[in-house]
Amino acid sequence: MIKLKSVSKNISGKDVLVDIDLLIEEGKCVLLRGHNGCGKTMLLRLICGLIKPTQGEVFNEKDYRYGVIIETPSFFLNETAIYNLKFLASINKLITEDTINEYLKKLNLYDFKNKRVKTYSLGMKQRLALCQAFMEEPDVIILDEPFNALDDENLKIIYELIDEFKQKGKMVIIASHGEVQRSDLFDEIIQMNAGKIVI
C-alpha cells in the first residue's frame, strides 16, 4: 500500500501539487488523467521518491521496488538494446539474460536486440523502455504516457502485461492524457487539473 496524505509540492514559488490524498493498494491499477502540465508527471515522481513533498506525507507499507518510465527514457544510443538492458540489470543483479530475452520477446524486440538503439523508431524505443520497467518484476510499475507511438498489436501486449502484473499483486500507476482502450483494467481513474485531484 502507498498512501499520500495532504501532499503538496511547491517549486520556485509555484504550487505544482496541491493537497493530494491518494491510496494505492497492492493488485490495483490506477490511471491519472488530465492535460499536459496538470501535475500528473510530478505526482508520479513524488510517488516513487524522485522528489519529496513540500507538505504532507507519503507512506509506503513496505520497501517497494519500482519499475519506472517518466518522461523521456535515457539509453546508450550507440549501443544495442541487449547491451542497454544487461547494463541496467547489472545494477541490481536480480535477473539473468534469459529473463531479459523473455521480455524482449514479449515486446516484439527480440529480433532487433543486437541493433543499436539509435536506429530504433520511436515506438521501438518506447517498447524498450517498457522492457526496462517490467523486466525485474518490481512491486510498483509507474508509467508516464506508456501508450505513445504504439500500434494496436503492441498496445494489446502492453495491456496484457499490465493485467498480468495486477494479477501478481503488483501496483500499477499510469499517467495518460489521451483515451485508453482498456478502461476495464483500471480500478480507479483519477482526473487532475492545476495540480489537484478533481475527481
From TrEMBL:
<protein>
    <submittedName>
        <fullName>ABC-2 type transport system ATP-binding protein</fullName>
    </submittedName>
</protein>
<keyword id="KW-0547">Nucleotide-binding</keyword>
<dbReference type="InterPro" id="IPR017871">
    <property type="entry name" value="ABC_transporter-like_CS"/>
</dbReference>
<dbReference type="InterPro" id="IPR027417">
    <property type="entry name" value="P-loop_NTPase"/>
</dbReference>
<dbReference type="InterPro" id="IPR003593">
    <property type="entry name" value="AAA+_ATPase"/>
</dbReference>
<feature type="domain" description="ABC transporter">
    <location>
        <begin position="2"/>
        <end position="199"/>
    </location>
</feature>
<dbReference type="GO" id="GO:0005524">
    <property type="term" value="F:ATP binding"/>
</dbReference>
<dbReference type="InterPro" id="IPR003439">
    <property type="entry name" value="ABC_transporter-like_ATP-bd"/>
</dbReference>
<keyword id="KW-0813">Transport</keyword>
<keyword id="KW-0067">ATP-binding</keyword>
<dbReference type="Pfam" id="PF00005">
    <property type="entry name" value="ABC_tran"/>
</dbReference>
<dbReference type="GO" id="GO:0016887">
    <property type="term" value="F:ATP hydrolysis activity"/>
</dbReference>
<dbReference type="InterPro" id="IPR051782">
    <property type="entry name" value="ABC_Transporter_VariousFunc"/>
</dbReference>
